Amino acid sequence: MDLFSGVVPVALKHSLNGTLLRHKAIAHNIANVNTPKFKRVDVEFKSQLKAAISQSTENSVHTPKTRLGHIPIDPPRLGGITPRIYQQSDTSLRIDQNNVDIDVEMGTLAVNTMEYNVLVRMITDYYQKITMVIRTR
């Protein structure tokens, strides 16, 4: 089992990248709240990540290593997850056809910031546990 490229750290890394990109998209929306004909953008990555994780755990083979020379069978890696930026062009809130609602964007920004902070804490805890195990050996 590879501690640094297993399902957990890779999933956390992809989640951090997705929330960072979403933060940039929300900031872009807020900056253009008064721009005529501007359409808000958002980022989709959670469904791809969820599908990759479920596929990875469904297709994994869990076999015990009974001897030192046995080759471990690792689950497939979480590759090919690319956050998708999309433009929400089906709505308009104002006469100038801008569809950015500052209250919605600020709420989304707060939720995204909390998600990012939780992910940072999770990955920090993950590596602190590895460090603790290495030090106590």
Describe the structure.
This protein is mainly alpha-helical and 137 residues long. It has one domain (7-136). 53% of the residues lie in helices and 6% in strands. It contains three helices and two strands. It has helices spanning 7-31, 46-58, 102-136; strands spanning 41-44, 84-87. Strands 1-2 form a two-stranded antiparallel ribbon. Helix 1 packs antiparallel against helix 2 and helix 1 packs antiparallel against helix 3 (102-136). The longest helix is centred in the last third of the chain and has 35 residues, at 102-136. The model has no long low-confidence stretch (mean pLDDT 84).
- The rounded Rg comes to 20 Å
In terms of DSSP E residues, the strand content is: 5-15%
Class based on secondary structure composition and strand pairing: mainly alpha
The coarse silhouette is elongated
Domain count: 1
The end-to-end span amounts to: 18 Å
Oligomeric state of shown chains: single chain
Helix content: 40-55%
Low-pLDDT runs of 5+ residues are none
State the total count of DSSP E strands: 2
Question: For the largest beta sheet, what order do the strands appear in spatially?
Answer: 1-2
Please tell me the overall pLDDT.
84
Number of helices: 3
What can be said about the biggest beta sheet?
A: 2 strands, antiparallel
Order of helices and strands: HEHEH
